[in-house]
Amino acid sequence: MSASRVHQSATEDAARLRAEADSHDARVRVEAEEYAAAMRADADAFADHTLADLIAVLRRATDTAEQGRHQLAARREGRPAAEDPAISE
Fold first, then answer.
1. How far apart are CA 7 and CA 12, in angstroms?
2. pTM over 0.70
3. Residue 80 has what pLDDT?
């Protein structure tokens, strides 16, 4: 086998390996992008659920604070808090 034939064979092998590597690279990139998109969707869903839970907790806290304010106002006015119409709502 001549040196030029060895060189030509090595060049062809290198080109084939490069093409295979490029193809593999493209597939892996697509898979990685799909995985990243799924992870973003999962993270967004988790954040949305967590924020919805926080809203519910804060609404309950707000309601409790409002009831406390009404009870305080009723006590200042000298009437039982149970008579305050805002508390019975």
1. 9
2. no
3. 75
